[in-house]
Amino acid sequence: MTQNKRAPRIKKPQQQARKHDPEQIRMQKKIGIAVLGGGPAGVATATGLVRLGYFVTLFAAPRHFAALESVSEHVAEGLRQLGLTEALATLSAPSPRRFFWHGQEDAHQEERLVYRPDFDAALLRDARRLGVRVEEAEVKSWQPDGRRLTVKVQLPHGGGVRSLHTDFVVEARGRTAPFPHHVTGRRRGAETMSLLQYWHPGAATGNEHPGSAVQSFADGWVWFARGANGRVYSQLTLDVEQTQLPSKAHLNKFCRGYLKRLEISREFIKGATPVDLPYPRASTSVLTYDMADEKSLRVGDAAVAGDPLPGNGILLALSTALQASAVIHTQLRFPERAVLAQEFHRQRLSDLFYRFARTGRDFYAKETHWPETAFWQTRHHWPDAEPLYPPTTPQTVDITYLPVLAGDEIIETEVVATPEHPLGIWQVDGVEVAPLLRLARSAKSEAGARHALSGLLNHSSQHAAQWLFWLQEQGWLADFE
Ligand SMILES: Cc1cc2nc3c(=O)[nH]c(=O)nc-3n(C[C@H](O)[C@H](O)[C@H](O)COP(=O)(O)OP(=O)(O)OC[C@H]3O[C@@H](n4cnc5c(N)ncnc54)[C@H](O)[C@@H]3O)c2cc1C
């Protein structure tokens, strides 16, 4: 739920979602849920479901590459809140990220570097500690089997194939999650790939502090990062259709061809030698439309995978997972609201996808040096021309019924929908805003509106005045005559 930080502080209303009684928890323990994939989305969803009392088995196979990524403080905070403390402990201390974009060096941002092999292993330890049954096995397939589902997995070290019967499947295998024929469509951004590479440090350049830098060039952009151990990593991002990748044997030379022309390369890889071959990783933005049905739900990159430029993938994965356990719980416990819960999941993830995609578009559009190259042309305009923050006027604000997250459930309730928040704002600081707006709108004068609102707010004229001011500040309320 979107919250406005300037909202007046008011006592929260009673929790609207039902509390779970021990009998309900006992019943839920009998419901089996299989989570396929042990990245941030899979682990956050699995631990959320265990907290709700379900019996969760998570199947995890390791990735084939050792990426370095970076995250903001929001991710650190999210991991802390979810109790994923071992994963949190693997994040590096904050270090600066610089942008060399449109020929200028932009203000520094802070980020934390994430060495994914350590982070992913820690996520699995967190999952086990929080009560998830983790099986290190590769998922081969899953399909309906009467009223239940069968998941087939390949056990490691030649352990053969095993089948598990389950009641619900969470698809969290990231970008490699299969796209079964019953799933009806996807929206893809410009086809993009990133070439990842580690380097043995070369001669000292006088700037060996941890940190990273992004630089744009005619055919794409590069991200260099140096960890606290001095190890350097490069990630070269290019357009797939515009790039002819050479054979494996010539990949190093191919990457160097780009990197040697960029000033920031000197700072990171002067005299350095590459470790192994560059690893090509697909990085196209993908939104899977059909991400929820009555027995399965896609989360994380398997549902919405974003462009790597804003570096928001782990945040997006955790956000999708945070709501997923409530969506699944509603589907399993309150089948009369199953379709509503699925719709909520689709709408929220699609909204997040477009917000991140438009943020990326606006950032790409700041680089105007190479308007003729395919890389920049396509990314300046994708996904659409809609503004990231559409203007709000009282005429564009509606009071309507939409699905919302209420505690551990999805319910339908009255919300305020605005162009910026088309999925609706239900509560701000625990106060339902739709009834406030309706009352304020029906008043003939400002004094009348204050009086009407105070009736809803424990007869506090001070709170009524604060809320009225807040509604006007949002642009939801027309001026009184
Ligand atoms: C080039 C690039 C750079 C990026 N940089 C950043 C960044 O700097 N910051 C950021 O926040 N995000 C970044 N991202 C995005 C980030 O990696 C993802 O968004 C995030 O990891 C998604 O989490 P997930 O749990 O959905 O999927 P994943 O993290 O991909 O997890 C899926 C898991 O499922 C496992 N799996 C796959 N197949 C099977 C199978 N058959 N059986 C069992 N397990 C399986 C995988 O091994 C993996 O552990 C980047 C992405 C790309 C492509």
Q: Which features would summarize this protein structure in a list?
A:
D-Amino Acid Oxidase, Chain A, domain 2, FAD/NAD(P)-binding domain, 3 domains, disordered N terminus, alpha+beta, 481 residues, 13 helices, globular, binds flavin-adenine dinucleotide, single chain
Description:
It is a single chain. The protein is an alpha+beta fold and 481 residues long. It folds into three domains: 31-94 and 111-179 and 287-381, 3-Layer(bba) Sandwich (FAD/NAD(P)-binding domain); 192-282, D-Amino Acid Oxidase, Chain A, domain 2 (2-Layer Sandwich); 394-473, no CATH class. Helices cover 32% and strands 28% of the residues. It has 13 helices and 24 strands. The chain has helices spanning 22-29, 40-51, 73-82, 85-89, 116-129, 251-259, 263-269, 313-333, 338-364, 374-381, 433-442, 446-456, 461-473; strands spanning 32-36, 55-59, 68-71, 95-101, 104-115, 133-135, 138-145, 148-154, 161-166, 168-171, 186-188, 192-200, 211-217, 220-226, 232-239, 273-282, 286-288, 292-293, 296-298, 304-305, 398-406, 409-417, 427-428, 431-432. The strands form six sheets. Strands 3-5-4-13-14-15-12-16 form an eight-stranded mixed beta sheet. The site of flavin-adenine dinucleotide has 37 residues, from α2, β3, β7 and α8.
